[in-house]
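User: Let's play a game. I give you a shape written as tokens, and you guess the letters that built it. Ready? Here's round one.
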């Protein structure tokens, strides 16, 4: 009897020891969670939708799994690009690389050792990756490794000042459906210039531009690709038939005053009534106001609506995909796994839709797109409703173009953008003064562009 009591007592004591050790470990885990530092671009340091979601993660999944995310930088992609490169190169005074940071592939390509980043295929199964939009994942691959993970994507969208467009349409018979093709948009651009010019008959050729594109280089390469040709030949631009089909209607409208070619973002001339149609990043919806202020300082309310970008009549429906993704710096297995837990949580369909609809982006999985119609019903701002309706149509009907990873890409982009604007603007000024015919001015502008490109 005493022996049995001793055995039972020993078993109880052992069990209590196990409970005590487990409790100590759980307490220790709660006291010292795996902490990850984060740099991102979604909002301001004190007013960020992602910061709010990170707090929610920390208080729910983070508590259960012993993970804590700490946001240390909220900035723009250019600043983070510079900060990441300085940190990666260990420049004097540079901050240490965070555990997670937002990046474009161009940042990774510029790092001295991209191998310092986690390949997400080590942490996601093929089945899990199959849930994501394939082209979104493809853009995040650098030298065969998936190192930039998509959590939100933007694309290019056509924004229309419908208030002013309707006035123009009422007098000319123009229809908004003509904006479905580039050919229709450019013809309308010339018509709009002539219509506004006619309002001041005492002054010749003082019409207004109809259209502005934020990214001429994007328009050109997506346009050529949609026509079935390669925009690039190696590291250089291929000036083939597709290029000319893209260039001709665009340059024709620009030389005759229909395209805004000044410096600055596409949101600016729409806010001042200097144009009434623009193509820009979908995320720029944050900067399109519901009021236009004219050069003489009088203002009026307007309705801004969103539509998918135009396509060429004989081309494929194609649009540039935009938006950075998260990189995870190699550290310990615990930290790397914790980062992936967060990324999986943030891209769960309902969470992802909640996130992207607060910042004007697209979700990144097929399943999340199924939640968008319901999410649209809950949006109070009609401008955002219009944007997400355009997103749904874009996802259903368009293919996403991914820019190639070329060593010369950034230089090509900057030179093309600057030269195209300046040469077509110069051609317009000559046309305005009657110093040349349209065909001659278009050819001269194209030759100047070809000569300037690296």
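Assistant: Ready! My guess for every position:
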């Amino acid at each position: 009897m005493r022996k049995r009591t001793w055995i039972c007592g020993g078993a109880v004591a052992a069990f209590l020891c196990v409970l005590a050790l487990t409790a100590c470990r759980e307490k220790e885990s709660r006291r010292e969670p795996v902490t990850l530092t984060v740099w991102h671009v979604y909002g301001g340091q004190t007013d960020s939708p992602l910061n709010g979601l990170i707090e929610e993660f920390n208080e729910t999944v983070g508590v259960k799994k012993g993970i804590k995310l700490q946001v240390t930088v909220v900035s723009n992609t250019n600043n983070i690009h510079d900060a990441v490169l300085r940190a990666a190169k260990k420049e004097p005074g540079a901050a240490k690389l965070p555990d997670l940071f937002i990046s474009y592939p161009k940042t990774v390509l510029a790092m001295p050792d991209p191998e310092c980043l986690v390949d997400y295929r080590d942490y996601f199964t093929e089945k899990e990756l199959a849930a994501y939009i394939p082209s979104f994942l493809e853009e995040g691959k650098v030298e065969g490794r998936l190192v930039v993970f998509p959590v939100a994507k933007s694309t290019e969208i056509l924004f229309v000042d419908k208030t002013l467009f309707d006035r123009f349409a009422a007098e000319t018979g123009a229809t908004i459906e003509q904006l479905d093709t580039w050919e229709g948009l450019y013809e309308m651009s010339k018509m709009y210039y002539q219509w506004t010019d006619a309002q001041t008959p005492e002054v010749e050729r003082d019409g207004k531009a109809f259209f502005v594109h934020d990214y001429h280089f994007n328009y050109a390469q997506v346009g050529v690709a949609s026509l079935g040709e390669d925009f690039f030949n190696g590291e250089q631009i291929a000036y083939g038939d597709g290029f000319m089909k893209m260039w001709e209607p665009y340059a024709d409208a620009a030389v005759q005053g229909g395209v805004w070619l000044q410096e600055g973002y596409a949101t600016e001339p729409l806010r001042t009534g200097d144009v009434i149609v623009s193509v820009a990043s979908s995320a720029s919806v944050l900067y399109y106001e519901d009021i236009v202020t004219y050069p003489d300082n009088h203002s009026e309310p307007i309705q801004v609506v969103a539509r998918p970008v135009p396509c060429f009549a004989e081309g494929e429906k194609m649009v540039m995909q935009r938006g950075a993704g998260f990189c995870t710096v190699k550290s310990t297995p615990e930290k790397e796994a914790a980062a992936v837990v967060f990324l999986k949580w943030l891209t769960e369909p309902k969470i992802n839709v909640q996130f992207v609809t607060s910042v004007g982006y697209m979700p990144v999985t097929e399943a999340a797109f199924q939640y968008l119609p319901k999410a649209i019903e809950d949006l109070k701002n009609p401008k955002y409703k219009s944007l997400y309706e355009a997103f749904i149509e874009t996802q259903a009907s368009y293919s996403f173009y991914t820019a190639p990873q070329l060593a010369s890409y950034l230089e090509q982009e900057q030179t093309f953008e600057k030269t195209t604007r300046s040469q077509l603007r110069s051609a317009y000024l000559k046309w305005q003064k009657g110093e040349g015919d349209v065909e001659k001015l278009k050819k001269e502008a194209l030759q100047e562009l070809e000569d300037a490109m690296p």
